[in-house]
């Protein structure tokens, strides 16, 4: 800036100093010359033009300013330092907080989720949400917020302390973060995915399930929203008319009791968690905490209560981290143990969980093969979690025994086993349907659960699939659909239960885990058949049992239905297999097929006042004859698999980390891939 510019007012007077500091001023006096030499010469000339007095005054002023500068430097230094530190701290604090927030969801898993505070919860949305820190999926009371931290510091000492704290916080938060797994499934140390023997002594070892990379939540799509709507509708019926009872009777607006243990509620717990139904989960949790009592003089079926209750509680424990569910699981697990006190150690079908006594059905001392061989995933997991080997021992013994039994046909097992002799009975009938189905499923799944080490299980599974190929596969007319029939004393029957439709999913799971590639080809063929069991029927819903036409007949489809078999119980098996097929192939046709099925459930089984009902006649769209019962597996399995089928998030129950029990309750794989 010019202290004075007299260019327009005549010749400059000597009393004034003119200092040219920039090009603008030079331009103002005619032409731009900003060379260093010119400027140096100009300053020197002006200095020489000053009087002696003027020069002395200026020199004095410079000297005075220099002294003042030195004096003030010492006292201002401290102030400067503190200001500088503070502003650095503030900068760091502002940057660090968001960084910490991003690195850590500010929602940390709590050891005792029951006491935790409500936290954030993902909104159901069709839009891609803004990038947010990972938020645990699931009810918020099972989450606790990270404490608020005042990062501002006043002194240097405080600054250092704050830096140390930040490092500590970062460390703690990284540790805490490492125990959050997919979408909020929290694995506590005692949930770690180590086999039983290791778990007991090394509870602190985090599993790779826990260390899973946190990803942005995948938004929920329209079809998933439709599943949520269906679930809510079903839940409304259950809540209004059957709360705390086993099954809803939606038409008579009442309930039925099987074990008197709130079966639907327990079966649905992890579905609510996966669907993100916070309020419903909360309410159900309260019922489990306050009203679920196993000390009851009641006979329960060992298999059904294991897969639905024990399985449901264990998976809910894993997903939520809430120890309430583990406590309840231990309780029911212990109460089921008397079933194994038999001469052969093959368990009885029924147990009185209040009295601690067990017995076979009144008319026989046989148990069903599928029942005694499809309780293993749950009891083994209970041993791993509790450190009490007795559960696993009991069920492993059954498998070992069945492995050695004669009476199999190329790996295919009969349907009954005697609890006294331990031998198969009613020999000669082989099916993949009722009474044998999940034996095959659990061979593969136990092998996967245990880290693919138990060779006898794999051997039995592979043999059995060869047996299926050799004895039970046939093709129908006119569409040449490959189906799984039955063998009775050497005679092939073209009968296939809807239950058999678990098989494509299981075969695909095996192929995914490295088993023969032709298992996948068979899975693709069979799931098409299962879909046709829906598509070829008037309501678009499958009957309980179909018979396939082996010979082409004019006007006949592949699928024939007998009057006694034309009911539909809202079963899950086809949707279950569609889910596996979609996960492993990414072929959208499987989603489309599932979508058709959901729409048909809505069309023919939905009860306006709440709930869904089984129907008696899938062949009559104008009157499907509602049966007035909603099975617990509709909420436990069918809707859960629908939701997962429509999801494109492979981490929403990652199949390399979780294994579903036969009631669709996911349990951790002990040595995940
Ligand atoms: C469920 O309880 C289980 O899926 C079981 O394995 C078979 N039956 C029902 C569903 O159909």
Keywords, please?
673 residues, mainly alpha, Glycosyltransferase, three-stranded antiparallel beta sheet, 20 strands, 47% helix, 8% strand, disordered N terminus, binds 1-deoxymannojirimycin, transmembrane helix, 6hp_glycosidase-like_sf, Glycosyl_Hydrolase_47, endoplasmic reticulum, EC 3.2.1.-
In short:
This protein has 673 residues and is mainly α.
Report on the structure:
The structure is a single chain. The longest helix has about 50 residues, at about 50-105. About 45% of the residues are buried. Residues about 1-40, about 70-190 and about 200-215 have low confidence and may be disordered. This protein has a domain at about 230-255 and about 365-665: Glycosyltransferase, CATH 1.50.10. The two termini are about 75 Å apart. The chain has a three-stranded antiparallel beta sheet with strand order 5-6-7. Strands 8-9-10 form a three-stranded antiparallel beta sheet. The protein has helices at about 25-30, 35-50, 50-105, 155-180, 195-200, 220-240, 265-275, 280-290, 300-320, 325-335, 370, 375-385, 390-405, 435-450, 455-470, 505-510, 515-535, 575-585, 590-605, 630-645, and strands spanning about 105-110, 145, 245-250, 255, 300, 350, 355-360, 365-370, 415-420, 425, 430, 475, 480-485, 485-490, 490-495, 495, 545-550, 560, 660, 665-670. With about 675 residues, it is mainly alpha-helical. The protein binds 1-deoxymannojirimycin.
């Amino acid at each position: 800036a010019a202290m004075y510019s007299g260019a327009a007012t005549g010749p400059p007077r000597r009393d004034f100093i003119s200092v040219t500091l920039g090009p603008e001023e030079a331009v103002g006096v005619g032409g731009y010359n900003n060379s260093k030499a010119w400027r140096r010469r100009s300053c020197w000339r002006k200095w020489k033009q000053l009087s002696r007095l003027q020069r002395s005054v200026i020199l004095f002023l410079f000297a005075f300013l220099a002294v003042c500068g030195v004096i003030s430097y010492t006292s201002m230094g401290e102030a400067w330092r503190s200001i500088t530190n503070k502003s650095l701290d503030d900068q760091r604090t502002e940057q660090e907080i968001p960084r910490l927030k991003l690195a850590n969801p500010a929602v940390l898993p709590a050891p005792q989720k029951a006491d935790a505070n409500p936290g954030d919860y993902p909104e159901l949305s069709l839009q891609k949400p803004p990038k947010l820190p990972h938020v645990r999926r699931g009810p918020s009371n099972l989450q606790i917020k990270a404490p608020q931290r005042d990062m501002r510091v006043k002194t240097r000492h405080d600054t250092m302390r704050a830096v140390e704290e930040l490092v500590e916080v970062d460390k703690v938060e990284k540790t805490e973060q490492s125990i959050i797994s997919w979408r909020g499934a929290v694995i506590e140390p005692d949930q770690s995915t180590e086999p039983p023997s290791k778990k007991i002594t090394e509870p602190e070892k985090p599993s790779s399930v826990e260390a899973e990379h946190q990803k942005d939540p995948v938004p929920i799509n329209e079809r998933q929203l439709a599943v949520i709507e269906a679930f809510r509708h079903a839940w409304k019926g259950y809540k209004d008319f059957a709360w705390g009872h086993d099954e809803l009777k939606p038409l008579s607006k009442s309930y039925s009791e099987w074990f008197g243990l709130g079966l639907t509620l327990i079966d649905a717990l992890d579905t609510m968690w996966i669907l993100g139904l916070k309020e419903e989960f909360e309410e159900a949790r309260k019922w489990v905490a306050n009203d679920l009592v196993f000390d009851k003089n009641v006979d329960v079926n060992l298999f059904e209560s294991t897969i639905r209750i024990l399985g449901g509680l264990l998976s809910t424990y894993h997903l939520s981290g809430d120890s309430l569910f583990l406590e309840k699981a231990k309780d029911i697990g212990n109460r089921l143990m008397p079933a194994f006190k038999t001469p052969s150690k093959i368990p009885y079908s029924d147990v009185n969980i209040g009295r601690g006594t067990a017995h076979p059905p009144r008319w026989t001392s046989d148990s069903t093969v599928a029942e005694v061989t499809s309780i293993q995933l749950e009891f083994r997991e209970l041993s791993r979690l509790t450190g009490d080997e007795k559960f696993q021992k009991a069920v492993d013994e059954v498998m070992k025994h069945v492995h050695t039994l004669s009476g199999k046909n190329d790996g295919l097992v009969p349907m009954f086993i005697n609890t006294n002799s331990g031998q198969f009975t009613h020999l000669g009938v082989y099916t993949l349907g009722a009474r044998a189905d999940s034996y095959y499923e659990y061979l593969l799944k136990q092998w996967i659960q245990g880290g693919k080490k138990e060779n006898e299980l794999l051997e039995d599974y592979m043999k059995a699939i060869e047996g299926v190929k050799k004895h039970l596969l046939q093709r129908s007319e006119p569409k040449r659909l490959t189906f799984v029939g039955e063998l009775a004393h050497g005679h092939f029957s073209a009968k296939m239960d809807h239950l058999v439709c678990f098989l494509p999913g299981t075969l695909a799971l095996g192929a995914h885990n490295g088993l023969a590639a032709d298992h996948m080809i068979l899975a693709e063929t069979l799931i098409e058949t299962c879909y046709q069991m829906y598509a070829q029927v008037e309501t678009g819903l499958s009957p309980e049992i179909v018979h396939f036409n082996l010979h082409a007949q004019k006007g006949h489809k592949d699928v024939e239905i007998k009057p006694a078999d034309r009911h539909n119980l809202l079963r899950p098996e086809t949707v279950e297999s569609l889910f596996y097929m979609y996960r492993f192939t990414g072929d959208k046709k499987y989603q489309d097929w599932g979508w058709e099925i959901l729409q048909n459930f809505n069309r023919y089984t939905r009860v306006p006042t709440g709930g869904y009902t089984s129907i008696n006649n899938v062949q009559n769209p104008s009157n499907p004859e509602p049966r007035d019962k909603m099975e617990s597996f509709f909420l436990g399995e069918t809707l859960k698999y629908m939701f997962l089928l429509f999801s494109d998030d492979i981490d929403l129950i990652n199949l390399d980390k979780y294994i579903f029990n036969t009631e669709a309750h996911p349990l951790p794989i002990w040595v995940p891939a």
